[in-house]
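Exam review. A common question shows you a sequence with its structure tokens and asks you to describe the fold in words. Practice with the pair below. Do the first one on your own.
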Amino acid sequence: MGAYLLRRLLLIIPTLIGIMIVNFALIQFVPGGPIEQILANLEGEGDAFQTIAGGGDAGGGSVGGDERYQGARGLPPEFIAELEKQFGFDKPPLERFLNMMWNYMRFDFGESYFRSVGVIDLVIEKMPVSITLGLWSTLIAYMISIPLGIRKAVRDGSRFDTWTSGAIIVAYAIPGFLFAILLLVLFAGGSYWKIFPLRGLTSNNFDELSMMGKVLDYLWHITLPVLASTIASFATLTLLTKNSFLDEIKKQYVVTAKAKGLTERSVLYGHVFRNAMLIVIASFPALFVGVFFGGSLIIETLFSLDGLGRLGFEAVVVRDYPVMFGTLYSFGLLALIVGILSDMMYVFIDPRIDFEGRGE
């Protein structure tokens, strides 16, 4: 297992470098870099933030004479050259990329171009919102999907199984953003009831509430966003649990256990449960990260939550390259590490699994 983990850890390096190279190369061909955003903003046409901070070497943007900047008409070339130097675009792309990767290897992500705040500080500031959505959605999905999946496996082919499968397929087919809009219309004062708040994670008077009041206020605010982000993972996990239990129920050791006179409950939870839950439990890290990153932008936007999804979207809009590439690097690294943790959980749950024996 040690040699396998070492190989997986070493594989992180070329994989992460490949991800960064592809995205860095694509950015070179995307018009509207940060300098163009600033110049357009000076003429009242841009989307850039009003405050501009020096950022050092960054990951992209078009460079060259001021004829490349549509908003540069009437501005002195010295001003354009100073902007290029400020953002590090006076250097060749290869040098910028190497400098960026050297800084990122030391987890130095620099400062946002337009916020005058370090990228790490921005991520830490926005992360609680995304963690809230990811963690609660994953926990609720497991709490509902596992019992439901077991029930469906035990009653496979029954009317209960058929109707619940239909409901699950319908739920899976509904896009998360459409379900979120439906929740807003029905329960957040859209056209029917105003039971839940429309935006934010806390009320304006949150600091004045008691401890229990803060907990209830927090739960009150996250109910609709968590429901909207849970819908897809709930359906997938339920069917995964059902199929896993069905595979185990059909095996010979289950028939033998029943022949010895054990009750169905004893066989199910004493023998089948551990083996069937292997793939379900081991997939927890990957599922959490999937909910953590996937679809968070739309949910955060609809419910006015200031999380990582909106941070990434705004960084793309204004071409805030330190935020774009810094979050891409850190989240890519996190995703690769989570893949290794998933494999380790397989071995932890079932020591019979041997990745070394597979020659990987």
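Now try the second one, then compare your answer with the model answer below.
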Amino acid sequence: MGPYILRRLALIIPTLIGIMLINFILVQFVPGGPVEQILARIEGQGDVFGSFAGGGDDAGGGGTDAGDGYLGARGLPPDFIEQLEKEFGFDKPAWQRFLNMLGNYARFDFGESYFRSISVVDLVKEKMPVSISLGLWSTLIAYLVSIPLGIRKAVKDGSRFDTWTSGAIIVAYAIPGFLFAILLLVLFAGGSYLKWFPLRGLTSDNFADLTMMGKVIDYFWHITLPVLASTISAFATLTLLTKNSFLEEIKKQYVMTAKAKGLTERRVLYGHVFRNAMLIVIAGFPAVFVSVFFGGSLIIETIFSLDGLGRLGFEAAVSRDYPVIFGTLYVFGLIGLLMGLVSDLMYVWIDPRIDFETRET
């Protein structure tokens, strides 16, 4: 298994470079870079330029009239624009900026945000608790509910239980996450009905003053509704995937042979079928985890006033904060590729008969 792991790790490098290169090229064609963003803000705020450039005496004083003091009318000094471009590194050709970026990222040096005056690493650490909470609990709940439910549906295939549960999970899948989140707020967070859960945030204002047990209760009190809203659509796919996988295995000859030997249904199901049927479910774990953890949380975070990686990525894209955009893309891309390798290792752990060593790469 060692050589296979080394080959997969070696393939991560060119794959990650390809991801970064494609996105870097695409960004070059998007108008309104960080320099243009700053210039637009300055021209729209009058004497903000004076404080920004250190020229407070020139802005609105010394006998100049109102027209002369208006920066949008006067235009910005070319040397100031050149200074901005140099500060952001845009005085260098694109290929050189890309190579410099890769060199820094290889050392996990992601630089500093253009507009927040904080390093990208510290910014991600600041937003990470929200995304970890949503991603971890949503994935855990989805698997804890969907796998037993899918197994039960496979055993009771065609029964009334199977029919009703299929209808319920299809309806749940059809409900948009943001609509369900709003419904939860209206019903349980001080809308028109009950006020059982808080309206916003991950913790209460007095969180630091609470006891350890109080902090745990307060945390789960705040995270319940966002997790439910982000999990509802994950049940359908995972439940039906588990059911179909078990149905396929139950019909195989070795299951009939095990039953003919007198083994109980539970022993056959969990001693023989489970290991084979769960392979395809585990194969989808990295995609489920990464999608819930890093994507699709923007709307949920906005509705519940949570400041996580979803909002961070959106705000960085809107403001053209390139260090945040590419830094998070690099880290999340690396994690996604590593999760693919973890998925293969879990294959082998569940079924030792699988041998990736003999597979050609």
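Model answer, second protein: Residues 120-155 form the longest helix (36 residues). The chain has 18 helices and no strands. Full marks require stating both points clearly.
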